[in-house]
Automatic annotation (TrEMBL):
InterPro entries: NAD(P)-bd_dom_sf, Sc_DH/Rdtase_CS, SDR_fam. This is Short-chain dehydrogenase. It comes from Undibacterium squillarum. Pfam families: adh_short (PF00106). Coiled coil: none annotated.
Length: 249
């Protein structure tokens, strides 16, 4: 069973740019009744607010701050769709012994894993009161196989994937659908140095919503993601071999 976007009340974290901004635009274009657009700095949401007027509610929200999360849950009491998009890639490099992997990994886990978990814990009761609704967690193809160039980011997104599976099972009884989204390279600031062909944030967002409406629990919204998804479902070890080949090339 798919999730109907038309009439939904959604909250999107990390909505100030990239995939998050595109998801807000796509949700409203698809008929969402209201979108809470969340970002660490509420002033960064001014362009979205101007674009969408009273269909958009700007929310100051840092997903690593418990008080921000609780305030958002209290504000968005009518929520039917939670989109956990906020994420960070704190470091990239080729040296496995680089000590920055440790500090970057702690930052990435705080946002990408603990932030996602905290948001789901806070909003699950809200969704239950409103009939179940849905949660969509934006992970990455790097959740399926580790890219050594993004060693700690990949590990944090694997944790996001794991907690998405847990939430899908744990919240099934209250009628909450849980979607895992695994984009490949998307043309955002975070992916500026990623050496792959990229899709636009708008194209990725549109594909994500179409897949949610079709009821696809695991969503691969671009060609690279679809290739990786097929391998992961059929032969996970082949993904590691493919990354090895990319590094050798």
């Amino acid at each position: 069973m798919g999730f109907h976007i038309e009439g939904a009340v959604a909250l999107v974290t990390g909505a100030n740019r990239g995939i998050g901004e595109a998801l807000v635009d796509a949700l409203i274009a698809a008929g969402a009744g209201k979108v809470y657009a969340a970002a660490r700095q509420i002033t960064d949401l001014a362009a979205l607010q101007a674009r969408h007027g009273n269909k958009l509610v700007a929310v100051q929200l840092d997903v690593t701050r418990a008080d921000d999360i609780q305030a958002a849950a209290a504000l968005a009491g009518d929520l039917t769709l939670l989109v956990n998009n906020a994420g960070v890639a704190a470091h990239m490099g080729n040296d496995f012994a680089d000590p920055q992997w440790l500090s970057a990994g702690r930052t990435e886990m705080e946002v990408n894993y603990f932030g996602t978990l905290a948001m789901m814990q806070a909003f699950a009761p809200v969704l239950a009161r409103n009939g179940g609704g849905a949660i969509a967690n934006v992970a990455s193809v790097a959740a399926l196989v580790n890219f050594p160039l993004f060693l700690s980011y990949s590990a944090s997104k694997s944790a996001t994937h794991s907690v998405t599976q847990a939430a899908r099972l744990a919240l099934e009884g209250q009628g909450t659908r849980v979607f895992g989204i695994y984009p490949g390279p998307v043309d955002t600031r975070m992916a500026e140095q990623v050496p792959f062909d990229k899709v636009t944030p708008a194209a990725a967002a549109s594909a994500m919503l179409q897949a949610m409406q079709a009821g696809q629990e695991e969503i691969y919204p671009d060609p690279v993601a679809q290739e990786f998804g097929k391998l992961w479902h059929s032969k996970p070890k082949a993904l590691e071999d493919q990354i090895r080949g990319m590094m050798a090339g």
